[in-house]
């Protein structure tokens, strides 16, 4: 089934996740921080993180494109960029075990945000929803997200739903000052009747959920 309503423009986000060989993780991160400016010269990077809890030896980065023609032009330019191919791609490909990408749109009621300051941690929460997209579960999901925002312990960065990849997947990116600040806020939210009621309504459409704690890279615009 169609994913339902989205933003009223052609902008989309490509979410790329790489599994790195454990013995090569440190080297990969060093190379990315050193050479990723070669990649960001071609298109806008939203954020680049490595996992800390919930998954290990993974990196995740999000790219913003104006439309699919824009992405095609960027991919063509990258394939012909000798510095990018020689200094980074050819070196890190043997370090990778798996690559995965998705195309996602911001849900209609969300704008991409920024943290109030640098130095925090990010939480990447993936919800697998029942088929139908935001047209089916959007209002209930929005209410659950807003209930958590209203507790004041966390900052919403973005809510993305997939167009390519596993459909009816929603990724929510949160920012917190620290893992402990997040834990304390979650405990408080679980005792808030408004949050409990909103979540109970939303989980009617939920099939599975996964939470991952992300640490921003030095080269990430979102830090």
From TrEMBL:
One of its GO terms (biological process) is mitophagy. It comes from the Eukaryota. Residues 13-111, 122-221 form the NIPSNAP domain. Transmembrane segments: none annotated. SUPFAM superfamilies: Dimeric alpha+beta barrel. Signal peptide: none annotated. InterPro entries: Dimeric_a/b-barrel, NIPSNAP, NipSnap_domain. Pfam families: NIPSNAP. GO terms for cellular component: mitochondrion. Belongs to the NipSnap family. This is NPS3A protein. The lineage of its organism: Eukaryota, Metazoa, Chordata, Craniata, Vertebrata. The gene is Nipsnap3a.
